[in-house]
Q: What sequence folds into this?
């Protein structure tokens, strides 16, 4: 990866800022700075055109933030940082972007982005792969969920933030349970270790602890809503989540190929395949909410169910058909033909993943940038918040590193533990749900976002160093 030259990066950033400011002045010269409510009045009378603009602002801001990838950091970290910057401009008197924070359409798109993200993670989390990684990944996942949940809920949380309700500590602990599959996978790929036993264990454990984290989220959400919960109710909630995940997968694997066959009789084009794939995820999200679970649990379950083989009766992507036609016409044979057929097959099967990826490129950055905008920078000046974030960060790192020791013999336990550190997407989803349910105030929410950003930031260099030291 070619590093971005500092001079070039500063030049690009300055140009974007100047262009953005000029555009803002042209858009509404009298309503940008504090003390003028013209911009607010415009939103009331013209919500849709301005919402189009805000969507464009968030997407462009997210893409500008991808400069952070040039220094080896994941895009999600850049999206959070750019969100914090946009959300803090009001401190300078620039209030234009404040409208985004309260725009209900933007918030809906962000929630839809979360559902699409979990659907995408589910599609990429093959059940067979989870089974193959077996006992080591399962043990690492269990320990990696239990340790941070217990440590932060019962010790770190009450010690650092005394006086909160028990449900708040539970949500705080739950937020620190899930490992980011995407961030760790990207780092392992970058350092050339994605095919090692440690890498397979880390990825498998990260997927499993996402599942366990979603079950914990269902339990914690029920406790928040009901105020308290007895052992019987706790058992019912866990059973409900387990039955939904297990039963949904069994029922879904029976329904999906039949639905696919039925709709392919109507049309075999890309549009039909897209509608079927996305609708499958959204329907499962709805059914999950009907049984009292978070929609993201349903979306994740739907993703686990879908496999490319269910869509073999549909037309292949146009470029795949063109390649196959060229192979036939040019009569390519031998090893080259076999290799090309393998590539064609891979891309043909990736088609349903590409649907969610393309939709995710639109919706998911909105969620992460908006999450960053909700961080109150004023709270970061509070020593208590910094101490709180530092304490949670230390606990978050130690508990995940300790989980690596459950990997068993013949495994680089430290590498496995370090690979489990980044919290990333799922942790942010949990934090947003806690804030939305009123469990977390701005102070706690800001501290959690800092911790998630910090775990994301430290993992790449730590993981590279550990693998380099152990060979």
A:
């Amino acid at each position: 990866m070619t590093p971005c030259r500092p001079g070039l990066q500063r030049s690009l950033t300055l140009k974007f800022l100047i262009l953005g400011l000029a555009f803002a002045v042209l858009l509404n010269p009298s309503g940008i700075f504090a003390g003028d409510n013209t911009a607010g009045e415009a939103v009331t009378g013209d919500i849709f055109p301005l919402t189009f603009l805000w969507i464009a602002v968030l997407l462009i801001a997210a893409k500008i933030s991808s400069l952070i990838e040039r220094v080896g950091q994941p895009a999600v970290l850049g999206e959070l940082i750019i969100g914090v910057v946009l959300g803090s401009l009001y401190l300078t008197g620039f209030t234009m972007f404040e409208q985004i924070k309260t725009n209900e359409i933007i918030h809906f798109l962000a929630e839809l982005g979360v559902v699409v993200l979990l659907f995408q993670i589910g599609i990429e989390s093959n059940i067979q792969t989870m089974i193959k990684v077996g006992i080591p990944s399962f043990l690492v996942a269990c320990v990696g969920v239990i340790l941070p949940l217990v440590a932060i809920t019962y010790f770190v949380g009450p010690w650092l933030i005394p006086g909160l309700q028990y449900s708040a500590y539970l949500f705080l602990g739950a937020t620190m349970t899930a490992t980011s599959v995407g961030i760790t996978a990207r780092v392992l790929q970058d350092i050339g270790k994605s095919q090692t036993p440690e890498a397979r264990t880390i990825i498998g454990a990260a997927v499993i602890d996402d599942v366990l984290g979603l079950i914990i989220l269902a339990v914690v959400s029920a406790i928040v809503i009901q105020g308290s919960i007895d052992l019987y109710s706790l058992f019912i909630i866990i059973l409900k989540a387990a039955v939904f995940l297990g039963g949904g997968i069994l029922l879904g694997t029976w329904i999906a190929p039949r639905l696919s066959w039925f709709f392919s009789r109507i049309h075999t084009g890309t549009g039909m395949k897209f509608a079927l794939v996305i609708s499958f995820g959204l329907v499962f999200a709805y059914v999950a909410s009907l049984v009292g679970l978070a929609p993201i649990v349903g979306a994740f379950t739907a993703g686990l169910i879908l496999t490319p083989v269910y869509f073999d009766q549909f037309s292949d992507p146009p470029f795949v058909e063109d390649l196959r036609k060229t192979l036939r016409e040019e009569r390519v044979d031998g090893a080259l033909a076999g290799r090309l057929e393998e590539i064609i097959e891979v891309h043909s099967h990736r088609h349903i993943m590409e649907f969610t990826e393309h939709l995710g490129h639109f919706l998911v950055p909105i969620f992460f940038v908006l999450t960053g905008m909700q961080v109150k920078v004023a709270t970061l000046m509070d020593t208590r918040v910094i101490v709180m974030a530092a304490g949670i960060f230390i606990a978050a790192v130690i508990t995940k590193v300790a989980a690596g020791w459950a990997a068993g013999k013949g495994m680089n336990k430290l590498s496995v533990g370090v690979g489990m550190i980044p919290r990333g997407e799922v942790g942010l989803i949990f934090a947003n749900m806690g804030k939305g349910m009123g469990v977390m105030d701005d102070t706690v929410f800001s501290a959690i976002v800092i911790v998630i950003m910090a775990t994301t930031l430290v993992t790449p260099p730590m993981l590279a160093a550990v693998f380099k030291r152990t060979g």
